[in-house]
Each structure stands twice: as C-alpha cells, then as structure tokens.
Amino acid sequence: MNFRSVSIYLVFNVLSAVVPIMALPILTRYLTPEDYGLFTIFTIVSMFAGNAFRLELNMALKREYVEAPQKFSPYVSSATVFSTFMMVPYALVVLLLWPFFDRFYGIPWHWLFLIVLLVYFRFNSMVLHHLWQITNRALPFGIWALTSNILSYGLAILFIFAVGADWRARAWGEWIAAMVAFPVAIYYLRKQYQLRWSFDPALMKKMLRFSLPLLPSGLMSYVFMVSDRMFIAEFSGAHELGLYSVALQLAAAAGLVFSAVLPAWESWVFTSLGPIDGRAIRRIGLRLLGIFAGMCVLVLILPGILGFMMPYLTSKDFAPAQVFLFPCLLATACTGMFNMISAVLIFMRKTVAIAYINAGMVIFNFVCLYIFVSKWGAAGAAYGLALTFTIGSAVLLCCIIRFRKRQALQAESLT
C-alpha cells in the first residue's frame, strides 16, 4: 500500500471527524434525541435509495478504469446518461410509496422527492471519489470530504439558529451540500476522465453484468448498517435510538483508521497486488493481521478517552450514550475488516460469491439482533453486528483460499 496516501487520508479523516464533534454540543443542545432518531430514519431511507439508484455502477466503473484507462470515456459517459434517465422511474416509485413513509415514518412526501435528487447528486460525486481512490489522488479526495462536511454541518447550524429547524436542519444541510458538489463532480469528470453526453448500450450491458450481482450485496450492506437502528427503534424507541446514534458518531473515531486505509488498500489490491496466488494470499494475510492488531488496541483504549470527553461534547441528556461506546467501536472495527476482505473478492470478479455470503449474513444478523436487542437493548445491537461481521470475514477468507486453489488446479489441467 501507499503509506503516503494512507497518511493523507488519515489526516483529512481526522479533520473531517472534528467537524461533527465540534458541532455536537450545539446540535445536542437544540435537537432532542427524538430529532436524532428521525434524522437517522431519513438517513436510512436515503442510503437504501442511493444504493438502488446507482446499481453498483461505481464498482463496475472502477474495474473498467483499471483494465483500460485510455478507453474509459465511453463507460463513464454511458453510466452518467443512464443514471440521469433513471430518475424518471424512481420518481414514479416514490409517488406510489409516499403514503407509506408519511404514515409510518413521518417523512413528508416532498422529502421523498428531494431524496431522489439527493441520491442522483451523490452518485456522480461517488463515481469521482472511487476514481480518485483507485488512482491514489488522496489530497483532492480529502479536501472534498472535509469541505462537504463543513458545509453540511455549517448549514445545519445556520438553519437551527435562523429558522429554529428540527431534524430537517440536518437533512437540508446534507441535501444542499450534495447539490453544490454535483456540478463540481461533473466538471472534474469531464476534465480528468473525458465525460461526455453519449450512451453505448453494449458497454452499459457489460457494466450491468458486473455490477448487478453486487446490488444485493450492496443493499444487504445497508441492511447491516441500519438493521441495528431498526431493531432499536422497534424494541426501545426513538429516545434510545438517538442515544445510540450519538455513540455511533463518537465511535467513528475507530472508523477513521479504516476510512484512511481502505482507499489505499483497494488501490493496492486493484493495481499492485497482481494475480491472486499463494504469495499474494500470504501478503494479504500479513497486512490484514497487522491492521487487525492495531484496531484491537484502538477498541480497547478509545472508550475511556471518548467517555472522558463526552461531558464536554454533549448535553447531560445524552450522558447515557456512554455505555454504548465500546460495543459501537467493536462493531465499527469488525465492519471495516469485512469491507477490506471483500475488496479482494471483487478484484477476483467473484461478485456472486459475495452476494451469497451477504445473504447468509443478513439472516444470521436478524436472528442475532432479535435475540440481543430484545435482551440487552442498543448495546446488544452493536454486539450482534460485531459477531455477524466477524463470521462473515472468516467466510470471505475461506472463499479466497478456495478460489485460489481452484484456479491453481485449472492451470495445472491446462498444462
């Protein structure tokens, strides 16, 4: 891996993490735990919609760029045109579903249409981000993430003070930040990757053949991200969900390491690792072991540090969130390890295997959460996620070794 890139990602991740932490005293003073819970529901809906909208085309574009960067323009152009026209059927789906969301989740109908625009804006930004990651452009990526974070939270605070907004202050901040980022992403895609308004059906079919098997996996990954909150909302209510959301925000300190390492890791796997042979598997195992050891240290020491800082970062109404810090940190670490191992199977084009593994994990996860949350509340949700991702990581490693042995046998039979 490129450790210079890792260092740059880490610095900007720390700076980006400082922004919500600095905003936390203001947000927790003017927003209630119920407001945090409603914004969490808004985030859940937008994440699911975003995954369904992009059809994992960002992963296909990343793979095509690695194989033939000089012929990349028709691919990114076709994907952009396709996503633009896909807004029409998605808007029709929203028109059919808005009574359900309005009745059960309290999200007004116009916010659902705003979510459609939000996921369209984010799709183009995400394509650019993935291309920057795979080419190790850590500095512009970090500046982009930091600026977006400052804009989102700054607007949220402005709306709170100016109009006394509730959870919608955070939602408007996210939406406007994405809208501002959209033309900037289009500019860089045109300048650096020759984006044009053109569409090639054959190339589009090729990308969809690669990306669609990843769609269930992508949707399932968001199920993992939101299932804990769904069960907490069902068994414990919006108040405890709000406390848990604050603990997750603080636990993102551990996620800083993975969000710094993952882009450089993917770039190394896709561009520098080479064929997945016995030597490559040993290199992967050694690096994963080192990262895992570092995360164990962080998970053990960060709860005490964050617990000490909580009275200075949140109001007293959020003090009970301290008991959720360790399980949230543990779940964050296990999720990060799973994502790193998944990148290897994506590089091997074993996307169907990832889909099957994720399907099994979803079933196991729901069983765990039903048992754990009903008995131990929000803390049980985090422990259930940690257990699910630990088992999933082990299965992924077994699949990598199995596919490697199968490739070796096929090579021997040909000779």
Overview in brief:
This protein has 14 helices and no strands. With 415 residues, it is mainly alpha-helical.
Give a quick set of tags describing it.
415 residues; mainly alpha; 2 domains; 14 helices; 87% helix; 0% strand
Structural class by helix and strand composition: mainly alpha
The portion of residues assigned to helices is over 70%
Radius of gyration: 21 Å
Q: Count of helical segments? A: 14
Could you list the spans in which at least 5 consecutive residues all have pLDDT below 50?
A: none
What is the CA-CA span between the terminal residues? 33 Å
**Number of separate domains:** 2
- What is the strand tally? 0
Order of helices and strands: HHHHHHHHHHHHHH
Oligomeric status: single chain
Tell me about the largest β-sheet. none
Q: What sort of overall outline do the alpha carbons produce when their principal axes are compared?
A: globular
Residue fraction in strands: under 5%
Membrane topology: Multi-pass membrane protein
Keywords: Cell membrane, Membrane, Transmembrane, Transmembrane helix
Subcellular location: Cell membrane
Transmembrane segments: 7-30, 36-55, 75-98, 104-121, 141-165, 171-189, 210-232, 244-265, 286-312, 324-347, 354-373, 379-401
How would you describe the overall organization of this protein?
By secondary structure, the chain is mostly helical. It folds into 2 domains: 31-208, no CATH class; 213-415, no CATH class. Helices cover 87% and strands 0% of the residues. The mean pLDDT is 79. It is found in: Cell membrane.
